[in-house]
Specification:
Length: about 200
């Protein structure tokens, strides 16, 4: 196995907590009604297109045209986005900062809308510490599409076989492996620390 020289972190649910139900538990108190809203109105597939670069204005207009009676809560998805990301995972962040400070080459690759990422970067300064980041909303591709991994490699001069990707989604981990990277599934910071030890990576 090639020695790892580059470490790439995902962000959501690896470094920062993300849960759309946090504000919507208040906005739609009934659990069944809330589940219906996420399953049929502001769905995962709807939201991921903002990560691919679609504007919130376009997204809201599309959803409101299909579900006009839910217009206010459709707009609330972006309006209360800040409540969906209430805190960082301090133990994971500590691992990333430790890797950077010990001289490892660390970058980030994330499915994120451009405007919400700019907001996250203002709130969580550690997102400015790695050498750089590929933001799906800026490049018009999302994980696990092969193209975004290849883009990241080219943008940051990485050798795929010498690159370790850390992501909480099995599909995204598999996408990285298909692109020739090494990859581990993020479960929690303790498991990540054990994975790094196993791979001979010391912070």
């Amino acid at each position: 196995m090639t020695e790892i020289r580059h470490i790439v972190f995902d962000i959501g649910r690896v470094l920062i907590h993300y849960d759309p139900s946090l504000p919507f538990s208040r906005l739609i108190p009934d659990a069944e009604e809330r589940k219906w809203f996420f399953d049929n109105v502001c769905t995962h597939d709807w939201n991921i297109e903002q990560d691919r670069g679609r504007t919130w204005e376009e997204a809201e207009a599309l959803a409101i045209a299909q579900h006009p009676h839910h217009a206010e809560n459709i707009r609330n998805f972006r309006r209360y986005w800040h409540e969906m990301v209430p805190h960082a995972y301090d133990d994971s962040v500590a691992i990333m900062i430790g890797l950077i400070e010990s001289g490892h080459d660390v970058t980030m690759l994330t499915n994120f809308a451009t405007d919400t990422f700019a907001e996250a970067r203002q709130r969580f300064d550690f997102l400015n510490r790695p050498r750089g980041v590929t933001i799906s909303g800026e490049v018009g591709m999302i994980k696990p599409d092969r193209g975004i991994y290849d883009y990241h490699v080219a943008a940051f001069g990485l050798e795929p076989a010498a690159t370790l990707f850390i992501d909480d989604s099995p599909k995204n981990v598999d996408g990285a492996k298909a692109a020739g990277w090494q990859a581990v599934l993020f479960i929690d910071a303790k498991t990540l620390g054990a994975d790094l030890d196993r791979l001979g990576i010391r912070a």
